[in-house]
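[INFO] parsing input record for M1 family metallopeptidase
[DEBUG] input buffer:
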Amino acid sequence: MTSLRLWRAPALALAAVLLLAPRPAVAQTPAEPPDSTAAAPAATPDRPSYDVTLRADDDGSRWTGRQTASFRNAARTPLRSVDVRLWGNGTDGCGTPAGPSPVRVSGVAGGTPRPLAVGCTALRIDLPTPLPYGARGSVSFDVSITVPDRVHRFGKDGAYRYLGNALPLLSVRDAQGLHLDPDVGFGESFHTLAGDFRVTLDHPSALVVPATGTTTRRAGAPGRTISTSVAHGVRDFAWAAGPFASKTVTTPGGVRLNAYWTATTSPEGVATDLRDAVGSVDEFGRRFGHYPYGELDLVMSDSLDDFGSMEFPGLVLLWTEPEGSAVVHEIAHQWFYGIVGNDQFASPWLDESFAQYANELYYRLDTTTCWDDQGMWPSDTAALTRSMAYYADGRRSEYVRVVYRRGSCALHDLERVLGGPETASMLRGYVRDHWLGVATTADFKRAAQAATPKDLGPFWTEHRIH
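[DEBUG] output buffer:
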């Protein structure tokens, strides 16, 4: 999920660089959807569970093993196949004979695989028999992951390895149909449902391995360690490997922050990131709902300037300089995309605009005139609710200006219309109502309209929220 990062520290001017615990009480999906022919088809396959065992080579550049994905059919119609997304192939596609795709799957069990599609990022597996409504099924496969030789969310940084978007994940089918969108090379194209992960990583003991979830470690073969990470209610799983230095602190609100940094990362930057992380994770917990995962890993490097920073559930990858990083923006993503999910290809504003809005709230920035200060729209067709397909179609230059800048300013403007306390209450309710689910623009508009007797129609029109 390549990200654009803003506001690394409160004193910095706005500079966009577009670059490559127990479960909460609110369920991910209703156990029994209402019987109504008017109801939208449920997102399926839902309640995914991933069990993964991987073994690393000597420096963490290659990981091989077996993965099982189990799931439930939430649709009223039988499920005849599932689609597995290999997002790690998004940059390299199908590769070449001399350089194959970084993520490869073989030895499929539980179904019959079709040829790879969508630039080798999509694998359809036909199930042996149609899976009826409410039933569970599973598929298993061997997986081979070779970390690309580039500084990237899925790449190498000297002796350090980052494995973001490396694990194959189940795609989503819903009222809009199959979600087999391409990786457009910037922003995010991803859409997944919250699920459970158990990932066992066998690696050299010299490698420190931060990962999504809660991790336990035990001795493996001589010179090796077995790290097992368990995460509930998350949409993805990421990890890193290398000779990281580390430190753990616990916030006043009880969240465990595990900081990891490379040998060349500024100590001042590490301290700043930790300070802002402690403050923001607790503040966002009070504002939007308590952070549910117990712990959060901060993985910091000063070599990510050509990439930026990136959010994953329970782990954020941070380009850290002496003045800090975009840690607050990335932590805000734990709520907007993580806890409250969205189709990031179709509605990028629902996570990026909201994360930037939260970032600006945390730093107490003066946004009184930010909507007017942004000037004119970059084009007649620009709108906050455009998809990544729109920006990829020759309009990449609009992405930063619209999704981050105008998007966050629109939310500040909405706060001025509704009132501060009313907006805070509305957002808490919005997060609560879509906790570990998937929200849409229509859902947010309904929540905002319910918070005021004013007709928000003119507001949506002015701010191009369709």
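[INFO] Residues 1-39 have pLDDT under 50 and may be disordered.
[INFO] shutting down worker
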